[in-house]
Amino acid sequence: MNHLKLLKAALLTLFALPAIAQMTHVTSGSIKSFEKFPSKFVDARTLDVWLPDGYNVKKKYAVLYMQDGQMLFDSTINWNHQEWAVDETMEKLISEGKIRNCIVVGIWNSRVRHSDYFPQKPFESLSRAEQDTIFNAARNKLGSTDKQPVFSKKIIQSDNYLKFLVQEVKPFIDSSFSTLTDRANTFISGSSMGGLISMYAICEYPGVFGGAACLSTHWPGIFRVENNPVPAAFFNYLKNKLPSPKTHKFYFDYGSETLDSLYKPYQIEVDKIMVAKGYSTKNWITREFPGDEHSEKAWRKRFYMPATFLLKK
After folding, report:
1. What is the H or E stretch that residue 136 is in?
2. What range defines the domain where residue 183 resides?
């Protein structure tokens, strides 16, 4: 596959559409799926709740909330036939005693994934002209089609998406499953735009989430580097909103191929902010993976690292 084809594949991952609703199958543990989970804040979508082997209501479980839920467990329902293999990885880590008992909530994305996942307050800190530039850049992205909307009518709705997670999804999960409901046992994770919204979630709701894993975080926000005001808006936001290192953990990583080739300079700036805010190796990791591309295949290979970091006993 030549470079252009790899780039197009990475862009499809960045702007991935949800698969047509199908039954999710797992190799390890079990899945309970809730299709068209309703919300007053965002479009209805599927929730996949993964339970480890031996799940027992007499025990209490930490909860890991993950973006792009249709990409986590079952490659047969996905557009690119890849998956994170979250069920196999989590089952192995639990059985080996490397992490605490945990369930995983996979929240499927919507057809306006960018609208849901683009951090709203940093976006709103930009000028109107800069905001229009972002919308235009997204609309003209490589490989776009009329059937593949990115933003919903020039709307960023990530604040509503987080309300959906915190006010609707989390209460449902805590009332339906045997969970530890406190911040120290509630985590959030995602890749690419899912990494951005996971970063945003822990900053906006530091009392809810105790840790975030942000893989291949799409710091450019759009597919353009030159004259792009987005990263600086994210940096300023983090300087003001990064939660206390005494009670929170962060994991970041990036590869070097396809879209991931853009990320290193921005992650270096984020790392400087982490240090300035008092984060250390006890509560923050950033890792670089030379040769890794922007894909579920790459995230599958290294998912055990953030899972272990966030959920270690």
Report:
1. helix 128-139
2. 3-18+25-311
pLDDT per position as a tens digit, 65-79: 999 999 999 778 777
Structure tokens at 306: 């953030």
User: CA 30 to CA 21: how far, in whole Å?
Assistant: 18
In this predicted structure, the answer to whether residue 122 has a pLDDT above a threshold of 80 is: yes
* CATH at 163: 3.40.50.1820
Tokens of residue 201, six digits: 């979630």
Please identify which residue in the block is written with the tokens 């998406």: 161
Residue with tokens 């839920």: 69
The rounded distance, in Å, linking the Cα atoms of 162 and 244 is: 20
- Cα–Cα distances in angstroms (integers) from residue 151 to residues 107, 115, 158, 228, 281, in the given order: 19, 5, 11, 18, 37
Lowest average pLDDT, out of 206-215, 226-235, 247-256, goes to 226-235
Q: CA 223, CA 217: separation in Å to the nearest integer?
A: 13
Longest dimension (CA), the chain: 55
| Residue-wise pLDDT tens digits, 259-295 | 999 999 999 999 999 999 999 999 999 999 999 999 9
Count of CA atoms in the C-beta half-sphere (13 A) of 162: 24
- Check residue 147 and give its pLDDT: 43
Quote the number of domains for the chain: 1
